[in-house]
Amino acid sequence: MARAEAIDRVLEYFDSGGFLRDLGRRVALPTESRSGNSTDQQRQLRAYLETEIATAATRLGCTPRIVDNPVTGGGPFLIATRHEGEGLPTVLTYGHADVVPGQAHRWRSGLEPWRLVVEGDRWYGRGTADNKGQHSINLAALEQVLHTRGGRFGFNLKLIVETGEETGSPGLHALCTQLREELAANLLIASDGPRISAERPTLFLGSRGSVAFTLRVPLRDGAHHSGNWGGLLRNPATTLAAALATLVDGRGTILVPGLRPPSIPPAVKRALTDLPVGGGAADPVIDEDWGEPRLTPAERLVGWNTLEVLSLAAGHPDTPVNAIPGTAHAHCQLRTVVGTDAEGVGATLRAHLDAHGFPMVEVEVGRKMTATRTDPEGPWVRWAAESVARTTGTPPVIMPNLGGSIPNDAFSDALGLSTIWVPHSYPACAQHAPDEHLLAPVAREALQIMAGLFWDLGDPSNRPL
Predict the structure, then answer these.
(1) Which of 152, 200, 208, 378 is the most buried (most CB within 10 A)?
(2) In this structure, how many other beta carbons lie within 10 angstroms of the beta carbon of residue 383?
(3) E strand or H helix at 240
């Protein structure tokens, strides 16, 4: 009955308007993060930690503190801890206070990024889905569990909130390495990203990594008349297109062995067997003949690498002239799964292009994010899935990892944790775009799911320890 009481408490908090008020106040703080944050942006980010997160953490009986970023120019972190006893499990939870730029001029009439606007089941505002709404749900669920259990959780709690996730989480991995003992835990339970669909509660256990790289063909200064010089001068656009065609073919299959992942592990294949992909009203139609042959859509998205050409340019694309351009470039991205040598991507590309007669194509490797994946058949995953099913009456979808990338390596690698992410958004939430929104029914159900999870973590008869 006490578990049901905790869930009733979060429902009362939502139905009475408490969650709407808290989220509206947080959305109103313009915590934009971008590379080279201004002094005012840094002030807004720190203020959110001090006024919103520190206050909420204190209500949970935690001791919060603001920690400067070990990376120069990076935004601050908030760390909060509550120790109830030796021998109890310890959970680390995470959120990010920063949001992408508001883009106020692109929101439709009646909406704006820094004001929470309710239209039916949609709650509009920057950060409603990513990530203020999600970490607000988790903090509220923790608070109601604490009240229901008479001022205790039955586990130890640690919290970290960063202010730079939207710019690649600078300093997060370094901070977790530096504070490995202080942040030590049994598992991470956190929320970000979308469910597989609005109707299906979802767990994901890591994320694909990514390696950004640019190919450049800087052959000469300026362009030269194609009638006077055509057939005599190497065309950098043609050269670049041919080089790209040796990396990935016309149906999206990666051709370079060093950029392909190892085979999909059996446990991951089993987890992906019934994973639905796409099919939503706002989703694009999947191209069944695109990507790695003989893999299902779920396996291509979650269990395999993809090489994407994000932009391709030479000359004056919109106003071409009769001239051979002097340079060409392509911005590319390799999405990676666990087992890929992400650190060796630059060397692999260089060796491959040289071997195929393209020494003139330069390779610039940019930002990397590490691929991570918790065992989908591990004990903490089974425990979490059973808890969600107990609350909702339906087994959740289990994704071994997201198709996208999040800074999960800070927790899985630097801290050595099992990681379980419980997303509270859905694919059409307009995350990072104008008109970002949270679905009220998803948020209401998410509060129940998280209250059940945190209740079960504090129940010694109902956890895998």
Answers:
(1) 208
(2) 19
(3) helix 236-247
